[in-house]
Design a protein that fits this description.
Layout lengths: L1 E5 L6 H13 L3 E5 L6 H8 L5 E4 L12 H8 L5 E4 L2 H8 L6 E3 H9 L24 H13 L5 H12 L8 H11 L2 H10 L2 H4 L4 H17 L8
Parallel strand pairs: 1-2, 1-3, 3-4, 4-5
Helix pairs in contact: 1-11, 4-5, 6-7, 8-9
């Protein structure tokens, strides 16, 4: 069985390396490709076995580059499997769910329930060579605040104020340093200190919701694809 995943900024190279043993033990061929662009699905329909599962995590944005709902409709009409989550995959899976595209994760669920409604909530700048994120997607910061409220570390009013600070920064300028400066400038000292600690590079992967959704999606797809009797690690 084969899983083809379109991966860019949502997973680190070490994440992909960590997923491969699980796939191998499960008897699944995990193929990783760069972020999806327009007409990639049409190519897959011509070159991949019909049983190959396709999982879209990351994709190029822009009118001329992004995979379209029309292309997805045509692909699904052939009876093939397609799922999405995390970033571009979350957007398209919500848009195309009635066509049969499967949704994975918290980000997709927030687009579905209307909590998130802007494409640029998942957008970010990144290093084109390593796909390492340079800026903080708003949806990740939104999830961090959600968890801090649930854990009792922040009240709802403080979380709303912090989200406003992040929202006022364009996704191209919302670096961890810029976000830390914003919360220190605009929020009470206790809230600013808590959030500044969360923006330390060593801990940011732990609340990168796009990353967590991507990991969960790959693991779920691999587990479902595993042949009967294969180790599910």
């Amino acid at each position: 069985m084969r899983l083809l995943a379109y991966v860019g900024t949502s997973l680190r190279p070490s994440d992909v390396d960590g997923l491969r043993p699980h796939a191998e033990q499960s008897g699944v061929d995990l193929a990783v490709r760069p972020p999806i662009i327009r007409e990639d699905l049409l190519t897959i329909a011509d070159t991949e076995h019909p049983a190959t599962r396709v999982l879209i995590l990351d994709g190029e944005f822009g009118q001329q580059l992004s995979v379209s709902a029309t292309e997805i409709r045509e692909y699904l009409a052939t009876g093939r499997y397609l799922a999405g989550g995390s970033s571009m995959g979350a957007l398209r899976s919500v848009e195309c769910r009635t066509l049969g595209m499967r949704m994975h994760g918290w980000v997709a669920a927030r687009y579905l329930d209307g909590t998130v409604n802007a494409d640029d909530e998942v957008a970010l700048l990144y290093d084109p060579d390593s796909f390492e994120p340079v800026t903080v997607p708003l949806v990740n910061f939104r999830w961090l605040l959600h968890r801090l409220v649930l854990d009792g570390a922040l009240d709802r009013a403080a979380a709303d104020d912090a989200l406003t600070v992040a929202t006022n920064l364009h996704y191209r300028t919302r670096t961890p340093d810029a976000l830390a400066r914003g919360v220190r400038r605009d929020l009470p000292e206790r809230t600013a200190s808590l959030l500044t600690d969360c923006l330390a590079p060593a801990v940011m992967d732990a609340w990168d919701r796009k990353r967590l959704d991507a990991l969960d999606a790959v693991r779920a797809e691999v587990t479902e694809l595993a042949p009967v009797g294969a180790s599910r690690g």
